[in-house]
Amino acid sequence: DSGVTQTPKHLITATGQRVTLRCSPRSGDLSVYWYQQSLDQGLQFLIQYYNGEERAKGNILERFSAQQFPDLHSELNLSSLELGDSALYFCASSVGQGPPTGELFFGEGSRLTVL
Amino acid sequence: GEDVEQSLFLSVREGDSSVINCTYTDSSSTYLYWYKQEPGAGLQLLTYIFSNMDMKQDQRLTVLLNKKDKHLSLRIADTQTGDSAIYFCAESGYSSASKIIFGSGTRLSIRP
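The joint structure predicted for all components is written out below.
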């Protein structure tokens, strides 16, 4: 158990809908990262927050947004969903702002299926 | 831009050594990592190596880094069925603002 909690574990929805994925980092970790894992694109970095502020941005679509709240949990909002958004979405946390040697602790992921 | 490449599959016989290879493009990469993902679980850090090192050994794991060729490998000695997993290579820069960029992962399967 990494200490990172993600909900929901599974989610099935239709195209055009909007969903929110939630992540609680390990106790004491200030950084939260979101990654998308799909079969054809591997593990893609989406976005990182550190202590409530956006820290780094990756290949995150404009239809997607995220935030980190004062209690340090984070939410990833996915809107106008398309079939291609079906993937496993991982949240990870770390103590500091990010690399280099700081380990990322991953949650078990939220599997999104868009029908 | 930053890119990390790995082969998708590797099959080895139980007891043999597994060698998983990775190449990266960012010449400013300072830290290189190996993460392991077991079925139904998130990724777990196995080991990392700093770019001024050539080799790092940790029990059955040996990491080799060829910085000139931007090539990283992970050797697992005496591969066991419990080693079946997806192995991700990743890299980051020196700055705390650096992102960790992952490869697509290599699925290691063990033959009896």
